[in-house]
Structures are given as structure tokens and as C-alpha cells.
Amino acid sequence: xxxxxxxxxxxxxxxxxxxxxxxxxxxxxxxxxxxxxxxxxxxxxxxxxxxxxxxxxxxxxxxxxxxxxxxxxxxxxxxxxxxxxxxxxxxxxxxxxxxxxxxxxxxxxxxxxxxxxxxxxxxxxxxxxxxxxxxxxxxxxxxxxxxxxxxxxxxxxxxxxxxxxxxxxxxxxxxxxxxxxxxxxxxxxxxxxxxxxxxxx
Amino acid sequence: xxxxxxxxxxxxxxxxxxxxxxxxxxxxxxxxxxxxxxxxxxxxxxxxxxxxxxxxxxxxxxxxxxxxxxxxxxxxxxxxxxxxxxxxxxxxxxxxxxxxxxxxxxxxxxxxxxxxxxxxxxxxxxxxxx
Lengths: 201, 130
Ligand SMILES: Nc1nc2c(ncn2[C@@H]2O[C@H](COP(=O)(O)OP(=O)(O)O)[C@@H](O)[C@H]2O)c(=O)[nH]1
Ligand SMILES: [Mg+2]
Fold this sequence. Notes:
Chain B: GO terms for molecular function: guanyl-nucleotide exchange factor activity; molecular adaptor activity. The complex is a heterodimer. By secondary structure, chain A is α/β, with parallel strands linked by helices. Chain A has a single domain (9-194), classed as 3-Layer(aba) Sandwich (Rossmann fold). Chain A has 5 helices and 8 strands, in the order ββαβββαβαβαβα. By secondary structure, chain B is of the alpha+beta class. Chain B has one domain (9-129): 2-Layer Sandwich (Beta-Lactamase). Chain B is 39% helix and 25% strand. In chain B, strands 2-1-5-4-3 form a 5-stranded antiparallel β-sheet, with helices on both faces. The structure holds guanosine-5'-diphosphate and magnesium ion.
């Protein structure tokens, strides 16, 4: 539900980073915040509990310039991944225009990825949205762990587990190093904004 | 993509007029009309406020949602008054219609009772415009 303000000729687009707890959603936004400092007018907002975990969400507003004479304001959000925070996760999804699913490549997190994706489907359904119809990008994060000898899931396994039916664009990534963080973001913005173009005359 | 609320330029201008007359002219610092997704629809201020309105709206949407969920848990439809009082500045939230909130930021020069009255009047007028 991107919001168009015809007076200011401004569009607000909501993109949510979703995925299991500790998968690297906040780290994605922190990297974007550092890397694109010039385009970010305000501070990143995070609502944390003690222990540095996302309690409610992170929020990062981001200007990408103009399309058809409208200035586009991208609002990046993350959800809290921990299972117990489903009520707040659902609040953050309200009015979402595009989703990045950040999966954790660690072997041990295989089940958690699958469960989190299932949870996303259900929460979208609560807003009468279908995961097959919403712009979506998959990110397989923490690929760098392989260099430290930590067992990780192969891209094929992740694709089979999470993306065989969705067929979303996907990126292997390392949020901590910044590998493919910008590429992931650019892809979801492109997908989301392209559905907007028709609407802007 | 679905666009639930679309406003025309004329609607936005009429809403701005209402907010200016009912609230800003009476000493309120700043007002934000926003939706529950956290989008800013209209923002006006008295020229001295310099708040990060997009972050405020994102947090207000989350806060409103959380408080509504608490109301449901204890068997209430909603809490009619949402108010955060600071030493100098305070924030008042009010539902305009389903999915739309009016956020008002004001200081000690404006009393809460008076503000509530004015917010109610502004909301009544906005409801006829949308
Ligand atoms: N090795 C590695 N660690 C990462 C990566 N991304 C995030 N982390 C770490 O994983 C932990 C959880 O990250 P965070 O961004 O808070 O996850 P969130 O719960 O999804 O927001 C933190 O300790 C991060 O430093 C990555 O690409 N590689
Ligand atoms: Mg987080």
C-alpha cells in the first residue's frame, strides 16, 4: 500500500526484511546505513531489548530520487525474528509493498528458515496478501562462514527448501562483509517500484 | 500493489487547512496525519519544530498497534486516549477513521483538555473530507 501524495509528488514505499532470529536482518540495514549515508537524512531507528536483539523493528528511510516526477521514499523495516514476537512481526507487515527474506546459511538453522517462511505466508494471509503476488527477494546470508570451516547449507539446498515454488530472485550474501547487501536491496526496490510506475502518471 | 487510501491534491489541501486552523494556529507544535502502515499523509508544523516525522510515524504506528493489541487482550475494543507526557513536549494520538491516525505534538502552553477538544473538532471536519 505505497502511499502517493499528489501534492508533494512524493511516494512512500514499505519494504520489510523478514527471516529467522539472528539471520542478519539488522546487519543488512546497518550496512546500508553506513554505505549510503549520503542518501539517508535521518538516523536509523532501532527498538531493542537488552542483549541487543530487535524487539520491535529497525527502521531506515532512504531516498532513491525521482520517478516520473515523484520523489520516492523507501522505508526499510526489519521484523524481530524470535518466535515469541509474532504479534509485533505482524504489525510491521501492515501495508508492506516488498519483502526480503533473509535466510541463515548455517546448517543448524535449516528448520528455522523453513518455519520462518511458513510464518511469513501465514502473517501475509492475515492481511489478505499472497506471498506469490508480492515482490519478494531471497537472500542466503552468512556465506562467509564457509571460510571459517563452519558447515553451511548449499545454495541448491536452500533453493530447494525455500524457493522451489516461489521462484524469487535470490542472492548468496554476507551481510557482515557487505557482499550482495546492496544488490539485494536494489533488486527488491526495482521489483517494488516497477509495479508502481503504472500508477504514476 | 494495493493502494488502500488515495488522496487527491485538493483533499490534502483541505485537510491541511483544517489542521492549520484547528491546531497549529492555537499553538500546537506539529501535527502528522498518518496511516497504520507508518506512512505520513500530511505533516504541518509551526515553523519551529524540526522532528524526524518519518521515524515518528513508523514508531507511532507500531506503538498504536501494540496498545490496541493490549486493549484486545484485556477485552477492550481500543483505548480512546493515547497520550505521552514529557517535561516540555507531549504527544497525543487519536484515531481518525479505520487505519488513519492523527498525531499531535504540543508543549506546556497548550492544555490537554483544550487540545482534546480541538483534536475532536479537527477529526470531525477531516472525516467529512475523506
Ligand atoms: N558470519 C556472519 N555473521 C553474521 C552475518 N550477518 C549477521 N551476522 C551475525 O549474526 C548475528 C545476528 O545478526 P542480526 O543482524 O542481529 O540478526 P537479526 O536477528 O536477523 O536482525 C550477529 O551477531 C551478526 O553479527 C554474516 O553475513 N556472516
Ligand atoms: Mg534484528
